[in-house]
Amino acid sequence: MLQETAQSHQLQDEIDQLEARLLDMRTQLARSKFTSTCPTSRSSWISQDAPWKASTDLDQSHLTRSQFHSDSVRTSSLHALLLLSDSALPLGSFAYSSGLESYLAHNKSLRANPLTSFHRFLKLSIASLASTSLPYVLAGYREPATLETLDNDLDASTPCIVGQRASVAQGRALIGVWERAFRRSFAGPGPGPAATDTGAGVATTAIEDFSESLKLFCEGQDEYDPGPQGHFAPLWGVMCRAMGLDLHQAAYIFVLNHAKAVLSAAVRASVMGPYQAQSILASQTLQETIMERIEREWNTPVEEAGQVVPALDLWVGRHELLYSRIFNS
Amino acid sequence: MRQPAMPIRSPFESSIAKPGQGNVVLSLLPPNNPTLTTLTYKYPLKLVPRASSFVPGSEDPDVSETCSSRPVHLYLLTYGGGLLPGDHIEVSMQLEPRTRMVVTTPQGSTKIFKTEPNNANGIKLIKGHREQMPSHQHLADMSKQSLDVRIGRQAALCYLPDPSVPFKNSRYAQVQTFTVDASAKGGERSSLCVLDWVTQGRTSRGENWDFRFWRGRNEVWARDEKTGRKRLLLRDSVILDDETDDDATLEESLTVERDSTGLDSHTAPPVGTQPPPAEHTSLNVIKERTRPHGVVGTLIMAGPVFDSLGSFLMHQFNSQPRIGGQNWSSTAQSSEPDPSLSSKGEVTWTAARVRAGFVLVKFGAKDFETAKDWLGGLLRKEGSIVREFGEEALFCL
């Protein structure tokens, strides 16, 4: 019951946010349409450079105009964005706490003030995700054809079995969602994302090929070749490309979804209430943290990805030692 | 940057041109005689071989039969026992099939000396010319060590060095690459055991994760000699970055890069001209991310020679008492393996059997001594390293 309320609140909040964003984008689009007659305008360039930093000085005239531009929704990646940021996306993310449960067990003395302790964890967790996984998201998006190599390299770079399982389970679920739900709409005939971005076509092929080799691989042929695994991060990048999101969005949702998962785990682990979780999620601080981390790792090649929070590896790895567990990681 | 007044002549010195470079090839000459067929190095690096009188015991017939060669012990030294800013050590080793090598650091911890504060101030002063200067300056200030080891089939490397101790304000990057023979299967696979650990600094001087940057990257690749194809088997990468004043420089250099591509040179905000926010400088990011540990490290094991050690550590890990559980059993106390070894509260560790048969141990401990006693205790208790490589392999533990 509590959970449902939390979820509906979370959804409501998300809808509000997205509505605000929709309005924003419409305004932007309308403006760019308006100015597209004048070739010197580069407003669209600015917004691509840092969409979250783009100025949002809404032009009142656009707000008062009561006309729905269906094209503005159609041409933007809004629909795909909403699908991928949906907490109802069946990836099973709710089953993982990304080390929070173990962290709490290892830092009992800090529980005197669980909120401070949680804030610390969230910050460490986001920094760690950004330094270890985000480069793979970005690389997957930028070069979807290298998906299989990225998957191998991320598998090689995941030091603990608990984290490995969590990443692979969600990655495979993502492939499942693609095959059963998204493929038809985004890679089928008709004007999909591939019409405007050839990379989207490459990305689609990469997912299909990867999914195929995931099914065909028989284990145990070569000790040194564990085969494709299906890690979440590179697949996320490739899928965002295939669905027509831009790179900033792909990176931002990836980290935001992680923050949402950790917060939702915190609510279920009774660290805080659902409203408190929402207020952290909505806070400027969280947004700033996410953007700072993305900005930091924006040009990190995957070879340079690494763990910046060594303590987190220990907590995640020791999750298996917990006497009682409510999460899988 | 120090310069040698008189380069020390080594009888082995030959064609190596660059300072800090070293090259080692260990071959097995007939009938069963391990020999360093190449050994070159140049200041500030020093490589000293030590003929070991140790002959591996024959308790395990499987292992001894296939690769019974005597281990060769190599000391890895640097003048002054550490690395100065700008020092680059580059060691390349090749272990030919069926050879065994022990590498240790007999000078105690690898000290990473600090970057001169003058330099740091210099960076702040030359703001106007940052496009080229800072990144180069940082690179020049960074101490680097790279180790590249190729391990042939049935060969084994045992590399258990002292930890690296980065001094206040130091910068250090280390890349260790181990390449195994991809075509070797089963009991003929290459073996390695590698330890990489870093401490908070000189505790006697009150240093507590006060360095600027430390990166340790360990990679294991499988390479097929015939096709030349490589596959990454394992990458362990730890980055301890205080994210203070290189933040601004990094961003700026990125902005500059972007500018030069001509995308939006006029719209880019002047990043980095403002001083970094106050909370950045006051908060020790590295300390926050390693808390409550004073030393963190990784132990990597692979191949038939270290199989039993890997299994032992996995067993030790899995038999640790459950966290947050009640001890219902009345006999539990007596059946517990050894509290001083596995369940010491000051060492937090995890072991995982990851892909390709690798066992990866990660640990954090309150200080160097604790970590050393714990790890040395475990390795001695299991005993296979001493049996296969001799007590001297555990020299640093």
TrEMBL record, chain A:
Keywords: Chaperone, Coiled coil, Nickel insertion. The keyword Chaperone applies. Pfam families: UreF (PF01730). InterPro entries: UreF (IPR002639), UreF_sf (IPR038277). One of its GO terms (molecular function) is nickel cation binding. Residues 1-28 form a coiled coil. Belongs to the UreF family. This is Urease accessory protein UreF. It comes from Penicillium ucsense. The lineage of its organism: Eukaryota, Fungi, Dikarya, Ascomycota, Pezizomycotina.
UniProtKB/TrEMBL annotation, chain B:
Residues 249-280, 323-344 are annotated as: Disordered. It holds the Pfam family UreD. InterPro entries: UreD. One of its GO terms (molecular function) is nickel cation binding. Keywords: Chaperone. Belongs to the UreD family. This is Urease accessory protein UreD. It comes from Penicillium ucsense.
